[in-house]
Write a structure and sequence with these properties.
CATH superfamily of the largest domain: DNA Cyclobutane Dipyrimidine Photolyase, subunit A, domain 3
Bound molecules: flavin-adenine dinucleotide
CATH architecture of the largest domain: Orthogonal Bundle
Number of strands: 5
Protein name: Deoxyribodipyrimidine photolyase
GO biological process, one term: response to light stimulus
Strand content: 5-15%
Organism: Novosphingobium olei
CATH class of the largest domain: Mainly Alpha
InterPro entries: Crypto/Photolyase_FAD-like_sf (IPR036134), Cryptochr/Photolyase_FAD-bd (IPR005101), Cryptochrome/DNA_photolyase_1 (IPR002081)
Cofactor: FAD
């Protein structure tokens, strides 16, 4: 059985609320800045519902695609609030942490993929299981907050972080559904859907990230934090942690594919990194063209973000661009523009990396190589993301100083 498809309305309202162009993201950052300090620390967990998530930045869709970078956002909030922005800065580092952790354990993504295959077979064979899953996906569980959050996610592509935690906890511990199916339900719908943050947050709630430490949703707390909007009944009072083998030991993250300065280049823009034109390390690059794959823009938010990224790259390098329907077409475009290599943002574990073999093959046939640019932010943060979050948290002052942020 295939994944239950998002309803057509998904993400329709998301664009205004969750910026997916650089300009809109910078405007949002400006607007959010006054409250990024102690106000954020005090109020970030308040959950007021769709259209009223004013206590949080709603920058995740932009950060996820690097329409704005972590470094830029952290620099702005530090300049405005100094150490009073510590809570917000720490949250931004959760993104870096999850990315680095998954880079060091790509098997966790691969085994999630395998589990989904197995669970889809079960959904096809076990009617009771399929009915429980369907009721959850349709928001027909009778648990008021959960059913409401399904509606909100379908309509906007977003849920507040705190709501995501309650949702995932109810999915796993109250409804007794596998975390893997819940992670897919989110990834298919979130406007900020991210392989690392999503998969690992679901594992964290289920008690698989910090072994034995699960997150159990509590009815009274939900009523309090939502201003009395919900009073869920029948929530699990015990967290039965799924019986799974421990995560593998951390390995060294994959090194970026090499590229050469001075070689004519076509930029392949993906939703991994859509502000490469601002990277000082690429300042002297001889860019002959900018290309995107049409398939990368299948989701409306990605299409808008890619269009925005292309516009800025073309304005920066004054070169032609092409929307390509296949890796072969992209290779032919690069060859036609006289390029010797194609450069792209570092492909992290997840769908981005899964697209690589096909692109490498097509480029090789055209006599071209593929290179990746990994940001210094990731190079510095990821080595500290191999254990629990606190090992990275301790390094935050050094990491932001190394990024030139005061
Ligand atoms: C079950 C579950 C699934 C999630 N799936 C995703 C996902 O697919 N993509 C995604 O980007 N985030 C995911 N998150 C993390 C978090 O919920 C969102 O990043 C956050 O809600 C985005 O809203 P915001 O930009 O207003 O956050 P703010 O509170 O304004 O935080 C600022 C930034 O910090 C980062 N951040 C904040 N909290 C977290 C966190 N817990 N983990 C990682 N980064 C964080 C984000 O980049 C965010 O934009 C998930 C969390 C849970 C519990």
């Amino acid at each position: 059985m295939a994944s239950i498809a998002p309803r057509p309305a998904a993400q329709a309202q998301g664009f205004a609320e969750h910026p997916v162009t650089r300009e809109a993201a910078l405007l949002r950052l400006d607007a959010f800045l006054p409250q990024a300090g102690l106000v954020y620390a005090a109020r970030r967990n308040e959950e007021h519902g769709a259209g009223r998530h004013h206590a949080v930045s709603r920058l995740s869709a932009a950060l996820r695609r690097r329409l704005v970078s972590e470094a830029e956002v952290v620099a702005r909030v530090r300049a405005a609030h100094g150490e009073s922005a510590d809570k917000f800065v720490t949250e931004v580092f959760w993104r870096s942490y999850f990315k680095g952790w998954l880079e060091a354990r790509p098997q966790v993504w691969a085994s999630w993929r395998g589990d989904l295959h197995r669970l889809d077979l079960r959904l096809g064979e076990d009617d009771g299981f399929a009915a429980r899953h369907l009721a959850a996906c349709r928001g027909e569980t009778g648990i008021d907050c959960f059913d409401h959050w399904v509606e909100e996610l379908e309509a906007t592509g977003y849920l507040h972080n705190w709501a995501r935690m309650q949702f995932a906890s109810i999915w796993v511990f109250t409804l007794g559904l596998p975390w893997q199916l819940g992670a897919r339900f989110f990834l298919d719908r979130l406007i900020d859907g991210d392989a690392a943050s999503n998969t690992l947050s679901w594992r964290w709630v289920a008690g698989l990230h910090t072994r034995g430490k699960a997150y159990l949703a509590d009815a009274d707390r939900i009523a309090r934090m939502t201003g009395g909007r919900f009073s869920p009944r029948g929530l699990a009072t015990v967290a039965r942690i799924p019986d799974e083998p421990p995560a593998p030991a951390a390995a060294l993250p994959r090194a970026p594919l090499r590229w050469q300065a001075g070689v004519a280049t076509v930029l392949w823009l993906t939703t991994e990194d859509l502000s490469l034109e601002l990277e000082a390390a690429l300042g002297d690059l001889d860019v002959r063209g900018v290309a995107v794959l049409a398939s990368d823009g299948a989701v409306p938010a990605d299409k808008t973000a890619l269009g925005d990224g292309v516009q800025r790259a073309v304005a920066r390098w004054h070169c032609p661009f092409r929307v390509c329907s296949s890796a072969e077409e992209l290779a032919a475009f690069a060859h036609g523009e006289g390029a010797g290599q194609v450069l792209t943002g570092f492909a992290t574990v997840g769908p981005a990396l899964e697209a690589f073999p096909e692109m490498k093959r097509a480029l090789r046939h055209a006599g071209l190589t593929l290179g990746e640019h990994r940001r210094a932010w990731d190079d510095r943060a990821w080595p500290h993301a191999t254990k629990g979050f606190f090992a990275l948290k301790e390094k935050i002052p050094q990491l932001i100083a190394a990024a030139g942020i005061r």
